[in-house]
Each structure stands twice: as C-alpha cells, then as structure tokens.
Amino acid sequence: MRRTERLFQIIQILRSTRSPITGRELADELEISIRTLYRDMAELAAQRIPITGEAGMGYVLDDGYDMPPLMLTADELEAAALGAAWVASEADSTLARAARDLVAKLSDTIPKELRPVVLDASSKPIKTRSSVKENFDSALLRHAIRERYRLQLAYTDSKGDMTDRVVWPLLIAFLDRSRYLVAWCETRDGIRHFKTDRVQELKVLGEKYLGRRAKLIKEWEDAMAKRMQN
Fold first, then answer.
1. Could you tell me the pTM of the whole model?
2. Exposure check for the chain: N or C terminus, fewer CB within 10 A?
3. Are residues 148 and 203 in the same domain?
4. What sign for the dihedral angle of Cα 221, 222, 227, 229?
5. Residue 66's pLDDT is what?
6. Of 82, 175, 193, 83, which Cα lies nearest the Cα of 129?
C-alpha cells in the first residue's frame, strides 16, 4: 500500500468509530510497524487533519471532518470504474450513458497518475448475452420509484396471459442477466416481481402510494432472506 493510500485508510478507520484507537491497533490493522504509524500520524497532523490524541492514549478524528471529494485510493477508483462498466453493459440506455459520463468525469478530476486505474482498469465485466429489450422508458420508471408514484402495468405473465396491475414500485433488481421490477401489487395484495421485458405498457398514475418505501423494501429483504434459508 502506498503511503498516500495508507493515510486515507487511517482517516477512514478513524471516521468509522467514535472511541479512541491506539497506535498499536491502527498499526496492526494496516499491517505496518508502530514506528511507521507514528510517522503517518505526524504527516496527517502536518496536513492539518483534525486528529486528537497521542501515542499510548489513542487517536480520535474530530466530529464534522470529511475528506475533500474524490480523494480516493486506487482500489476505490477501480471499484467505481468496475461498477460503472457493469452498469454500462447491463442497465438501460439512460443509466448506461450516465455510467460512461461518470467514468469520464472521474478521469478528468483525479490526479494524472491515477487515471490509468479508471481508463485501463484491471477488472472488467464480460457480457455473454444480448441486452434486455423493454417496451417502456426506464428513466420514467426510475422517476416513479424515487417519487413513490403508483403505476399501471399491462403485463404478460409466465403463461403468456395479459394482466392489468396497479403497483407501488419499490426498486429494480438485476438477476441472472434479467431485470425485475419489485413492487407492491394492489391486485395481489403483496410484493411481486415483474420481469421488465414482459411489461407491455407502463403508465405513471398521478397519485403517490401511502406506504413507506423503506419499510416495504425491508419486508421484501426479510422475505428473500427467509427464502434463501429454506
């Protein structure tokens, strides 16, 4: 680990806890000597990072401190680039374009020596199937999810029958190269999964649903966890 990355990591560790952390604990977590740790703490102090404490007593990062934007390590940048590449290959065209724009903005704002991490990353997603074809504007669906608008769907079920549903959209789930709309279905009075390529028509209704989206998602997550255990 380069020293710059290690300094960032020290700040991240201190940000994650309110109780003092001793130099020995920090050194052990970073797998460095205590002497190196003390030199790093001195460097952070010289950079005016608001860390209080001293050797033997423990260190604490002052409340309210946050690192400047885009002060990222090579691994963090590669994670962002890999995530953006995956979105560009798997998500709808609007999100794919946003992912490519994100990579371009990252490469323009990070230090020159880190640009190869973004532009020539060592990890890349491999696409083995064609993109999912949808009959609606995915940006419209995402807007409805964020704003909690009820939706009316014309949906073809697994048997090929057309059904009409009114749903509360919660999130879009990606599974095995397929996209699913996870939603509370008023017709079935429960959470259901709708393959987005089977949605023949999607209409955003003018009313917002009354349920709390976070609560409904938690119920869905709990149900999925129980299903995985069985």
1. 0.62
2. C
3. yes
4. positive
5. 65
6. 175
List the chain residues with pLDDT less than 70: 1, 54-56, 66-71
- In this structure, the answer to whether residues 144 and 222 fall within a common structural domain is yes
In a domain, 223, yes or no: yes
* 86 shares a domain with 57: no
| Domain of 82, in residue numbers | 74-119
Q: How far apart are CA 177 and CA 128, in angstroms?
A: 9
Instruction: Specify the number of domains making up the chain.
Output: 3
Which residues does 32 contact at the CB level (< 8 Å), separation at least 6?
Answer: 6, 40
Same structural domain, 37 and 82: no
pLDDT of residue 114: 79
pLDDT reported for residue 90: 83
Q: What is the largest CA-CA distance in the chain?
A: 71
What is the structure's pLDDT at 69? 54
Helix (H, G, I), strand (E, B), or coil: what is residue 91? Answer: coil
